[in-house]
Amino acid sequence: MTGRITLTSEGAIARVTLSHPGKLNAMSRAMWREMKTVFDGIHLSSDYRCVVLAGEGDAFCAGGDISEYPDFRFDENALRQFHEGEVWGGLKAMLDCDIPIVAQISGACIGAGLEIASCCDLRIAGEGAKFGAPIAKLGFPMAPREAEVVARAAGDVTVREMLFEAAVLTAAEMKSRGFLTRVTPDAGVAAEAAASAARIAELSPQAARLNKRTLRSVSAGAGTLAQAYRYANSAEHREGIAAFLEKRPARF
């Protein structure tokens, strides 16, 4: 069993589940490839307005599947292909996805799990969730692109603490450092993530997509002015303004 990424849907909300039974949903190489396929498909679909990403059972994701590591990690070219091809392929597909992604985090959010959560737009965690990247214990560093993503989401101070001290932090600590959107009792994480997704799905999908593109451009230091106002004559723009003036809910 190499684990799997599953995609289900409830109306306009997609649900992506990390599943690797017996390994706290640790990411195998096959799962990274599936992650890219799933999020490339979501990005191109007009069926979805929000994605909820969760781990199966009581964990989000406890890292990479270390049982696979001896097969490739000791060869430089194979290691580069793993990180720059498979891992970054999955993470970049998430980052490039124009649909808002809500992370539903329970239990372990470690290593690869932290990287995946860092690619989500909103992060909702249970009080018992744990966060870290203690890979120094395994004798290797975080890959450059992955470190950049985590540092941007969690902050430079936090990622240095995790990498240099192998620190594992609580949900309360990660909330105080700005990584988490909300922290709930463990039993309420799924309901809170679903409620967040429902709120997003009720709003303009066009606005959500455009906001994600703008935020990507801002993060990359790229200009956005040339295409920033092309939505002017769009149906959703007209409907949103008309609904406000007519004192009724907008129908997106």
Automatic annotation (TrEMBL):
<dbReference type="InterPro" id="IPR014748">
    <property type="entry name" value="Enoyl-CoA_hydra_C"/>
</dbReference>
<dbReference type="GO" id="GO:0016829">
    <property type="term" value="F:lyase activity"/>
</dbReference>
<dbReference type="InterPro" id="IPR029045">
    <property type="entry name" value="ClpP/crotonase-like_dom_sf"/>
</dbReference>
<dbReference type="GO" id="GO:0006635">
    <property type="term" value="P:fatty acid beta-oxidation"/>
</dbReference>
<comment type="similarity">
    <text>Belongs to the enoyl-CoA hydratase/isomerase family.</text>
</comment>
<dbReference type="Pfam" id="PF00378">
    <property type="entry name" value="ECH_1"/>
</dbReference>
<dbReference type="InterPro" id="IPR001753">
    <property type="entry name" value="Enoyl-CoA_hydra/iso"/>
</dbReference>
<protein>
    <submittedName>
        <fullName>Enoyl-CoA hydratase/isomerase family protein</fullName>
    </submittedName>
</protein>
<dbReference type="InterPro" id="IPR018376">
    <property type="entry name" value="Enoyl-CoA_hyd/isom_CS"/>
</dbReference>
<keyword id="KW-0456">Lyase</keyword>
